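Hi everyone, sorry if this is the wrong subforum. Our group has a chain we'd like a structural model of before ordering constructs, and none of us has done structure prediction before. Sequence below.
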Amino acid sequence: MPIIDTGATSAVSVSFTSEAAAYRAHLLAAEQAAIAQHHASLEALHQQKVQEMGYEPGTTDPREIASQMMQNWYGWGSDEFACYDRIITQESRWQVTADNPHSSAYGIPQALPGKRMAAYGADWRTNPATQLAWGLNYVKTRYGTPCQAWSYKRAHGWY
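Answer:
Right subforum, don't worry. Here is the predicted structure as tokens:
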């Protein structure tokens, strides 16, 4: 009957386990660094966009910010703003900290979940420009225009 040297096997097993753990830690650190770099680049892009339109945080009404973004970024005029105003008035009354008690929807555009807006800036909970940049992109991507989004909202009760 063969004799197994459990001491040697345990040493090899421990060595392999610690190497695997070290490798996993290295991969995790690399992934976290990549994520942090991605968030930093999104934040920089957001700040660049805000500067391009001449918005000064804390000095402008959210409706004015939305109007500027709609015109400067998408070429949408007052007719599209009127539709967006109807949506946002019903959703959040233009309140930056609007929080739906029945869901995790948050902010001016009532993003669901609210943390989706973090892709547009770390200040997504408090900055109307960050929330509106996300919300207008959402409308453009999903519906095409604010009036198309308003039409959908009227038919379905949500957008």
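For your construct planning: Residues 9-156 form one domain. Residues 57 and 129 are 7 Å apart (CA to CA).
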